[in-house]
Amino acid sequence: MRKIFWLLFLVSFIINAQKDSVRVDLSNPNATLYTHLYFLQSDSYQPKKSAKTILGLPEKEAIKKVVRIKKVLDGKGLYVDFNKVPKNANYKDTVRYSSYEKYTPFPQRMPEISVEKIENKWYYSSETVAKIDSLYNAVFPWYVQKIQDFIPEFGHKKLWTIEYWQLFSVLIFMVLTVLIFFVFRKLTFVILNRIQQKITKTTDITFDQSLKKLARPISLLIAISFLDSVFPSLYFSLEINKWVFLFIDIAKVVFWTYVLINLVHVLMKFYSVFTEKTHNRLDDQLSPILHNFFVGLVIFIGVLRLVALFGVDTTTILAGATIGGLAVALASQDTVKNLIGTIMIFLDKPFHIEDWIEAGEVVGTVEKVGFRSTSVRAADTSVYQIPNSKLSEIVINNKGLRLFRRYNTNLGLRYDTPPELIEAFVKGVREIIIAHPETRSDSYNVEFTGFGDSALLVMVNVYFKSLAWGVEQSSKHRLHIAIVKLAKELGVDFAFPSTTVTIEHFPEKQGLNPKYNTDAGRIDTAITKVLEEFNKENPKED
């Protein structure tokens, strides 16, 4: 009997010794967090030892603080993975606090809770101690305990490890979440629609479709935020809360990404409405490029947020992406140069879509400006693809920016044309230009400018109002026809390269020189006739 007694005493002593083997250790972040959480477990509950992780408070107040910190962590499903908590006594958070010895276990989901080094030991930070009461009240509102007091005894019975009142509350919360979604979806759409109408002054149905797509994820965010705020009050275990809040956080990231993508759609729609009111077609081309860029940026940030929820260090990913991007940039310098050229084209705007340009050997109409190259359609309808890096460096003659289209030519009259007919011809051409509906009547030149090898040169310099190439050619046609008719009526001949041999005397043969009629009355009648016909065929718009 005595042997049995000593055996039981020995076993009890060993068990107690094992329990006491875990001592208060505040030498590093890992030890401090372990001390706090270990001494608040049900099988090792010693809150006085756990309270040692808080400095400068009375023991009773410190116990209240550490208990609340654990409840907040459990309520939000924040599980401390001690394999990832640093054991370095001189640990420094170089990402967030470059000059402080501080550690934040959950920087994304609960940045308010952290530990810091004071003298040679690690304690919960003063910010955590100051904020824990407000955090606790936010996670477990005052009415939660009131509701707990009204739960009947039957409600505390368990189905497996979950009490009946918890199951019933989950069903109620799910129904409320669905109702909140439908109510806020309609309310959000009404608000967004009114904002859109005030900004754009339009009731375009395509805006309604875009705003409905935007209102849906916003209402989902509101509904999931409601579930996030009330679920901790159900007092589920840490394991259940861990998976529930992981799902909620994933849903938040997905919905936020969905919101931002649809917001990009709406903003680009606003931008498109604005660009339609401007004459700059290059802005229209910029819209899809900006749209694709911002959508890609939103998706990239959303992916980073998702992987951060699973404990992946996003700074490592960003550093790798930066190094990889540098390597890719070095390997594809031409692509990078073209991208920079694209940016410079959109900043400087040397031309617009549908402008007629001369860029080196390429002459044609600008059709599209892409990320890498610009498409220019030549007069023969072939398409040139010019790298934007080259286009941003060469000299560009933008015909599309001209105020008017200038046309300059020389008309050659025969050397034997009398001065009276030269004057009459010049006068008639001037009158035709003034009467022409597509030419500037206040800026033109028609002058007898010199003596060519085979002709008397009459310079014609006019400006056409339309910048369209096709309209210019049609205007030239009408001008030329009127000049030819004028020459015919006046009896004036156009010269062509020739050699004239003059024979002083040849019996019974007459010379080939034409007979010119220089009668002033006949000249005025001819000019008037040609102008009347021209005005009848080409009336000017009032």
UniProtKB/TrEMBL annotation:
Which ranges does the record mark as transmembrane?
Answer: 164-184, 218-238, 244-268, 289-308
UniProt keywords, alphabetically: Cell membrane, Membrane, Transmembrane, Transmembrane helix
Species name for this entry? Answer: Polaribacter marinaquae
The main location class comes to membrane
Name the lineage.
Bacteria, Pseudomonadati, Bacteroidota, Flavobacteriia, Flavobacteriales
Q: Where does it localize?
A: Cell membrane
Know the name of this protein? Mechanosensitive ion channel family protein
* Topological category with respect to the lipid bilayer: Multi-pass membrane protein
Domain annotation Mechanosensitive ion channel MscS C-terminal: ranges: 409-493
Question: Which family does the entry's similarity section mention?
Answer: Belongs to the MscS (TC 1.A.23) family.
> Domain Mechanosensitive ion channel MscS, which positions?
334-398
Entry-linked InterPro entries: LSM_dom_sf, MS_channel_C, MscS_beta-dom_sf, MscS_channel_2nd, MscS_channel_C_sf, MscS_channel_TM-2
Question: Mind telling me which Pfam families this protein's record contains?
Answer: MS_channel_2nd, MS_channel_3rd
